[in-house]
Design a protein that fits this description.
Layout (H helix, E strand, L loop, with lengths): L3 E9 L5 H14 L3 E5 L13 E7 L2 H9 L1 H13 E9 L3
Antiparallel strand pairs: 1-3, 1-4, 2-3
Helix pairs in contact: 1-3
Length: 96
């Protein structure tokens, strides 16, 4: 069964309050057994526009990745992210 991934590109607009989102999302990702493969860090963007922060989160399945995003718990955390950052998020099915 293929794994699922969230790929997020983020520009934090309120760095003072953004840690509130991190504190709210961590328990959600732990509950879904998600693994952060990338959470910030150095990067190079050889083509196209990019945001300043990049995140890749791995889930056991694509279905779990979708379900986590749609969960009431994550949507509560997402409201914080949306208040403190501009983001692009995609959920992708990995290779079988």
């Amino acid at each position: 069964m293929a794994k699922g991934y969230w790929i997020a590109h983020v520009d934090v607009t309120d760095p003072e309050n953004y840690p509130k989102y991190i504190a709210a999302d961590n328990p959600v990702f732990e509950a879904w057994n998600a693994t952060f493969l990338v959470r910030g860090g150095a990067f190079e963007a050889p083509e196209g526009p990019m945001r300043s922060r990049h995140v890749v989160i791995e889930f056991e399945t694509y279905e779990k990745a979708l379900a986590c995003y749609r969960s009431t718990e994550y949507q509560a955390a997402a409201k914080l992210r949306q208040a403190y950052a501009e983001s692009d998020i995609m959920i992708i099915k990995g290779v079988d």
